[in-house]
Specification:
The complex is a heterotrimer of chains A (about 325), B (about 270) and C (about 280). Chain B is about 80% helix and about 0% strand. With about 270 residues, chain B is mostly helical. Chain C has 13 helices and no strands. Classes of the chains: A alpha+beta (about 325), B mainly alpha (about 270), C mainly alpha (about 280). Chains in contact: A-B, A-C, B-C.
Chain lengths: ~325, ~270, ~280
């Protein structure tokens, strides 16, 4: 159930996709690989699945060396961004595929497929073809298909990337509930930090083929290891040599030590909180986030000159 | 960025490659090398003489004339037909498609015979043609009609998928900007499909140059008058002038190689356009 | 849903107007009538000149029957062989990488580009009396099959290649991750998806082989009952002035060609069934 990646490197021609990556995924957890395009997160996922072969390093699945094992022997479920649906088969046949190639008895297959279709809420659609389903339905089918052969690990490669925003957030919640119910070790790749923060137990932030930091969402947000993680996981303002989160930017009435003069450009109330766009004296744009209460209390107005300082700041060597 | 993992086992991959290459050498490469050898068996001069007899030169000229007439006609037809099929709605499209594709599957002999039955002395138009002293069979018009038939589909078949792929959004945009039908056609549509047309023209020309069966029937094969290059090859062979037959074949084969090069070049242009 | 599906549904009629449609349709139908339809009509009419009994008599005469049997048999064999090898070659061209692949890919089209009479002559030179490799099969049925193999080689390769290229590799990866071996993946995933391409290619190859003339006139020797194919039979009938006889067999060939074209159309429609996006 657990995954251990040790010092894995992978190159495509001159391009270094993974550079000595090590990661531990505890059994039963929901881990996110977060990073920008080209950071190597998809490559890492595919190496774990066996769809790519690492140039160096080891992959250990549940204590067994899987580095040289072919994908079909690893018992991992893989879900693709663009579904990879078997378009010439019905939904039932798609979901049944992993069991069909293992030559399970027909009755067993039928029961399991029914069970899964119920789980992913696609009952009644078993006879349709993938082309007749919506994007969200297709992805749920892909999930059911991956889960059918009871894999020990579930890997998802930007599973909601091809879907529109509303469907994406629905499926996000749905994945979380599924994980609670099925409890398979799950690793998913995303470039959306909000998604990762929302869903995952632990997040591995990647950049340029390296793991920058691994930790829980709170750890990464509150105690980022470096500038990259800080800026990737949440917004950050630059104040001198340090970084300040929008909700940690305090407004003061008089200039103090460490305070910066700024002009309020725009105030945007957003329901519960408000966003305030400012420009510092040296021209740096700043973004502050306050509750509506605080906003009213401060009586801020646009085109007003204020002083801001960091309620809390971070510097990196 | 994917490994060539689908042909994982090296042995399997090499075996597949081997079979493919052996088959190709036996069926394609070997024969071609031979023509070259046989043509110049006795040196260049005899081959040159065979190629430059008046009848042979006429045959080459006739082939080129027929091609030069048939290609533009079928190109215009191909473009109009392609636009019709993709951009317009009407009943009977399946029927139309079948007729356009038919020449691809039909024996040239059947083509030649049908023209014979249409324009021959006892044919449907036979009497009318004789009354007005118009020669279709055993003359250029008949040969052109036969060549038109067999080379009909190519431009249309290349244009249709390209038109489908690019969609008509650009044309709609042009219309909203004030362009009329003809302007849109000239400035937007035609440039968008130009490589498809070129590729189709190459295929059409190749088919015209290589046509044998249909023209054999409608032309009467009169040397120096209605004999094309392909018919001449047959005639030389029948007259036991093997060297002559090979010499003309070599020229046609070299033309074919040029066509292959053109096809490769333009196919890539068509795909990346 | 691809652009093909979008465009093949209701086109923007307002853009073109009905007058333009009528005009284009008129031009196209007129051209097709003169070039294709009228000759075909004359042919069908001539074959029916002696009525059904006359038609049957010609078509079932021993020589005609022999010619048709040889044509059908050879065409079928060749279509199937090239179906198999053509798929193999397409696979190698799409999935494999080696130096000179572009050259091989270009050479595949040689039978398209080369005049058939030249092909016949060349095959005769290579596998006939003066053969440099000591193989002499001229004027035998083997020669007929050989010539037809040459001429129909590109068809299956060229219909399978685009389908193979467009195949979603992730489907194969998904199958692997679900436990399928290489062979199972090919059988269950790749083959069903390239089958329409293979079938169209085989059908076209069959039609071409049945009607081939140029490559056969020289190398087959056209011996009645032995190596005379249907197309050569028709040619012989024309040259001896028996137009009715020629027309009868020619109509059989026409019917086969038409069926093949309709069949390919049906295959095309069947495949797009999978692509049809019917939003719930």
């Amino acid at each position: 159930m657990s995954i251990v990646v040790r010092n894995v490197s992978k190159r495509f021609g001159d391009f270094v996709a993974l550079d000595g990556v090590s990661l531990e995924v505890p059994g039963g957890s929901l881990t996110a690989l977060l990073g920008p395009s080209g950071s190597g997160k998809s490559t890492l996922l595919r190496v774990i699945a066996g769809l790519e072969r690492a140039d160096e390093g080891d992959v250990v699945l549940s204590g067994e060396h899987a580095t040289a094992l072919a994908p079909q022997k690893r018992n991992v479920g893989f879900v693709f961004q663009h579904y990879a649906a078997f378009k010439h088969m019905t939904v039932r046949d798609n979901v049944a595929f992993g069991l069909t190639v293992r030559r399970r008895p027909k009755s067993e297959i039928r029961t399991r497929v029914d069970e899964l279709l119920r789980l992913v809420q696609l009952e009644g659609l078993g006879g349709r073809y993938p082309a007749q389903l919506s994007g969200g339905q297709r992805q749920r089918m892909a999930l059911a298909r991956a889960l059918a052969p009871k894999p020990q690990v579930l890997l998802l490669d930007e599973p909601f990337g091809a879907l529109d925003a509303r469907v994406r957030s629905e499926l996000r919640d749905w994945l979380l509930r599924l994980h609670v119910e099925v409890h398979v070790t799950t690793v998913f790749v995303t470039h959306d930090q909000e998604e990762a923060m929302d869903v995952a137990d632990q997040i591995a932030v990647m950049n340029h083929g390296r793991v920058e930091q691994v930790g829980s969402p709170t750890e990464l947000y509150d105690r980022p290891a470096n500038e990259f993680v800080l800026r990737f996981v949440g917004d950050a303002n630059r104040l001198g040599t340090s970084w300040v989160r929008p909700h940690e930017l305090a407004f003061v009435h008089e200039p103090e030590a460490g305070a910066v003069e700024a002009l309020v450009e725009r105030i945007t109330p957003r329901g519960f909180d408000a966003r305030v766009d400012l420009v510092a004296a040296d021209g740096t744009p700043l973004v502050a986030q306050l509750t509506r209460e605080r906003l009213d209390l401060l009586e801020l107005e646009e085109r007003q000159i204020v002083w801001v300082r960091a309620a809390r700041q971070r510097t990196f060597a | 960025m994917r490994n060539v993992t689908t042909l994982e086992r090296s042995a399997g991959r090499h075996a597949l490659r081997g079979i493919a290459l052996v088959y190709l050498v036996a069926v394609l490469v070997g024969p071609l090398a031979l023509v070259f050898g046989r043509t110049f068996e006795d040196g260049v001069a005899p081959a040159w003489n065979a190629l430059t007899t008046p009848e042979t030169l006429h045959a080459f000229r006739l082939t080129l004339v027929v091609t030069a007439i048939a290609v533009p006609l079928n190109t215009v037809f191909g473009v109009v037909c392609g636009l019709l099929i993709v951009r317009h709605r009407f009943s009977g499209k399946g029927f139309l498609n079948a007729f356009v594709d038919l020449p691809l599957a039909l024996s040239p002999v059947v083509v030649g015979l049908s023209l014979f039955l249409l324009y021959g002395r006892e044919g449907w138009f036979g009497a009318w043609l004789e009354r007005h002293d118009v020669q279709v069979l055993f003359a250029l018009p008949g040969m052109v009609l036969a060549t038109l038939f067999v080379s009909l589909p190519f431009v249309c078949r290349e244009v249709v998928p390209t038109l489908r792929e690019i969609g008509d959004e650009q044309e709609q945009a042009a219309r909203t900007l004030g362009a009329n039908g003809l302007q849109t056609l000239r400035r937007i549509t035609l440039p968008a499909i130009r490589w498809a047309i070129v590729y189709g023209v190459v295929l059409t020309a190749a088919r015209c140059l290589g046509e044998y069966g249909a023209v054999a029937i409608v032309s009467g094969r009169v040397q120096g008058q209605t004999e094309t290059a392909t018919l001449r090859v047959d005639e030389r062979y029948d007259s036991f002038d093997l060297r002559g037959a090979y010499a003309i074949s070599l020229v046609l084969a070299l033309l074919a190689v040029l066509v292959l090069i053109a096809m490769t070049v333009f196919q890539r242009r068509e795909e990346t356009a | 849903m691809t652009a093909v599906d979008v465009a093949s549904r209701a086109p923007a009629q307002g853009l073109r107007g009905e007058r333009a449609t009528a005009l284009s349709l008129g031009v196209v139908v007129g051209y097709l009538s003169v070039v294709v339809a009228l000759p075909m009509a004359a042919l069908v009419s001539a074959s029916a000149a002696d009525g059904w009994s006359g038609f049957r008599e010609v078509v079932t005469s021993p020589q005609a029957t022999a010619a048709l049997q040889l044509s059908f048999g050879a065409a079928l064999a060749v279509a199937l062989v090239n179906g198999l090898i053509g798929t193999l070659i397409a696979w190698v061209l799409v999935r494999d990488e080696f130096r000179g692949k572009r050259l091989v890919d270009a050479v595949i089209d040689l039978p398209f580009a080369l005049p058939t009479i030249v092909a016949g002559l060349v095959l005769l030179a290579l596998y006939g009396p003066a053969s440099p490799v000591g193989v002499d099969v001229a004027f035998t049925r083997t020669a007929v099959v050989l010539a037809l193999l040459f001429v129909t080689l590109p068809f299956v390769v060229r219909t399978v290649q685009p389908v193979l290229r467009e195949l979603d590799r992730e489907m194969e990866e998904a199958a692997r991750s679900l436990g399928a071996s290489g062979l199972a993946t090919f059988r269950r995933i790749v083959l069903p998806n390239i089958l329409p391409g293979i079938l169209s290619g085989v059908a076209l190859a069959f039609a071409r082989a049945i009607g081939e003339i140029g490559a056969l006139v020289v190398i087959s020797g056209s011996l009645p009952f032995r190596t005379e194919v249907a197309s050569v039979y028709v040619l012989a009938r024309i040259e001896s002035g028996d137009q009715a006889g020629a027309a009868a067999v020619a109509v059989v060939l026409l019917a086969v060609s038409f069926l093949v074209i309709l069949g390919i159309g049906a295959v095309r429609r069947l495949t797009t069934r999978h692509e049809a996006a019917v939003r719930p």
